[in-house]
Amino acid sequence: xxxxxxxxHSARPTAYGVIGVLGLLLxxxxxxVGPLSGTSLxxxxxxxxxxxxxxxxxxxxxxxxxxxxTALIGLAAxxxxxxxxxxxxxxxxxxxxxxxxxxxxxxxxxxxxxxxIVVLVLGPTTEMTIVLVIIGCAIPILIQTVAGVFDVDPVRxxxxxxxxxxxxxxxxxxxxxxxxPFIATAxxxxxxxxxxxxxxxxxxxxxxxxxxxxxxAQTAGDSARMYALIIxxxxxxxxxxxxxQLVEAKALxxxxxxxxxxx
Amino acid sequence: xxxxxxxxxxxxxxxxxxxxxxxxxxxxxxxxxxRLAVDKLSKSYGxxxxxxxxxxxxxxxxxxxxxxxxxxxxGVGKTTLLKCITGLQPLTSGEARIDGQLIDGPPEQMALxxxxxxxxxxxxxxxxxxxxxxxxxxxxxxxxxxxxxxEAIEAVGLSHATDxxxxxxxxxxxxxxxxxxxxxxxxxxxxxxxxxxxVDAQTRFELEDLCLRxxxxxxxxxxxxxxxxxxxxxxxxxxVVLGSKPAHVVEIVxxxxxxxxxxxxxRATKAFVDERTRVLSLIKDPHRQEMADA
Amino acid sequence: xxxTADITATPVAxxxxxxxxxxxxxxWVKWALAVGTPTLLLAAWWTASADxxxxxxxxxxxxxxxxxxxxxxxxxxxxxxxxLANLAGGFALAAIVGVGLGFVLALIRPxxxxxxxxxxxxxxxxxxxxxxxxxxxIGFGNxxxxxxxxxxxxxxTLIATMDGIRSVDGTLKDVSVVYRLTRAExxxxxxLPAAAPQIFAGLQVSLQVAFIVMIASEMxxxxxxxxxxxxxxxxxxxxxxxxxxxxxxGVLGFVINKIFDLVKARILAWYFGAKEAQRAT
Lengths: 263, 294, 281
Description:
The complex is a heterotrimer.
Chain A: H1 2-33, H2 44-55, H3 58-91, H4 93-106, H5 115-122, H6 126-151, H7 154-162, H8 167-205, H9 210-220, H10 223-251, H11 256-262
Helix pairs in contact in A: 2-10, 3-4, 3-6, 3-8, 5-6, 6-8, 7-8, 8-9, 8-10, 9-10
Chain B: E1 18-19, E2 26-27, E3 34-45, E4 52-63, E5 67-71, H1 78-85, E6 93-98, E7 101-102, E8 110-113, H2 117-120, H3 127-132, H4 142-155, H5 171-184, E9 189-193, H6 201-218, E10 221-226, H7 229-235, E11 238-243, E12 248-254, H8 265-268, H9 270-284, H10 286-293
Parallel strand pairs in B: 5-10, 5-11, 8-9, 9-10
Antiparallel strand pairs in B: 1-2, 3-4, 3-6, 6-7, 11-12
Helix pairs in contact in B: 4-5, 7-9, 9-10
Chain C: H1 27-48, H2 60-74, H3 76-107, H4 109-124, H5 130-138, H6 142-166, H7 170-178, H8 183-219, H9 226-235, H10 239-267, H11 269-280
Helix pairs in contact in C: 2-3, 2-10, 3-4, 3-6, 3-8, 5-6, 6-8, 8-9, 8-10, 9-10
């Protein structure tokens, strides 16, 4: 009986959600055949048809893996750059003060601003995309790492020093674990951002991948394919989001902020 | 205009007698009418075989101008009881009435002071604005509104802090603000849920005396839930002792102490110690008492 | 009346927790470093690029000259102002819809269940990817730009508002019920301020998204706007013009965010104050 009740509890939102999605599709279809017929809006069947057709193309899968792969490579490079520089800056007061104004200025500037320059120098290539992702993601990771290192309890580092640990050991055993929640959060936020930058680089800079496909569909006037690509990008975005949340939760299961949530 | 104007006596206006709103009959001075009447109140969560009874068949009354404390072991369901009385939660059966009216939502004659002062005050409003918030929909004119606020602030001794934010105040001061908010609302009955549980002992004494002073100054009826037996005896005219599983009334103890109380002298009297012992033994071993009654 | 009351009647001071180790650096050194480094970097850029023959990296002097010529006179009214107006309009729409819809979704469960999956899907789409759809539907004009900005920027605020309203403290809700606040009072005096810290966090992300989409909507084939001019300059090899555009966009991104920070600090002064006080104890 209890399980039946629980089932009903969790099933209701799901049922509503399904109705919501079906309703959206219905409105879309109605708009496409009714008030907006003759515009670029494809019918649901057309969009799904284009999607199914696309799923059968080798080129589409290549584009998808290029997009996901480029975003991941860019993210990995950003993590390395951000964490290394962040620890360097975070452990030195002088460096922190010296960089604060520069970082403060760069932080709110999105990578799309710098896109024309990067495209100019590197051309419409995967390297260009990766550089753009690094510009977009390394700075937030760096800033969070600095904050995390700064946040490590001085008592802990002093304790470590009193036990005769060397600099490297303190860094690896005390500072890095202490700062890891900050770093993990930054990475969780940066993973979907890396995907966004990759798509932007393709769409506006011509870098290979789904962004470029979208641009081609737009210029070719193939609106059904455009919608299909948008759906794919949405799914990819959700995968990136879910994966990064999962990784953060797994990586930080020992941390008290996570333990509290469970209690 | 030269005629002598005789004051028209309002129906049965014999001094001291009040109209019992329950029956419409006048009552003798010795048994004042119940301001708050709780009758066979039960509360369960869940339904069917899963139902868990929290409060079972609980009855008591609070007369106008009385200070009544509800005490009981922790986890007995005192907060649930208060939520039922204040109309925040529906009853499973039985009823609660204020001035004879059935309570089915928060009544306007009632104000509640919460235990968590730091969560019950709006941190984005100053002390004065916190106190004003519940008055706005009463549409008082400006001068009366200000007068009520000033009076309440004065009564709790916070005149110097009106423009500060709650988080700039100590815990005891925050609870004063919460009390002042209740006072300015001018309820007939002020209900407090463990109001002094999280302040230090010194502040606690001050707030207890504040509570008694309010009763005199505003003629307010006060119902306090507490787990502190000393506090209950010190504050109350009567103490409602609850037993657990489900919450029920073990006994209602009338406190035989003079109305004027003093933290030092009252607490030192034998009468106080006796009352305290009585209540404590009722809480520690309710069954013996119940068996003796039977 | 207030004989005993005055004892505790001193506001709690908020002493700052002394942070960090004893090795203190005098504050003038901090300032010198904070101001000096950027100045030094600019100076380095200036001298290193002074007689640059590299086509990609013109001299800073040249860039600044073009910056002044382009943005301060020629294109200020025709491009800078419309870009910013689109940004403001789109962001304002997003803020209103995001907060409003967030309220509705947080308070009315069936509506939330109905729309939540759709919202989570749409917000996962890279915001810039929506621009081509609006271009094919509405064209390249300002309508398209404002629509794109508004739609993309709605979601961060919407989700933050929803979370903020849903996590309003139960005691505050009880207070507003016990004191019989009217529905309007509950919304404007309790729920909205209580959720404000989260709403503002969402608005800040929305503003950044709006800025990105503003640029993207101009870069994708439009003829006017800062983004369009910058990309056109790049494509027609007017490199100094492109640099000037990048510079303007960077400065705008910084300034817009700073303005938002100032507004936020003002409106949420109570929140930051309370947090500071809590940290002190």
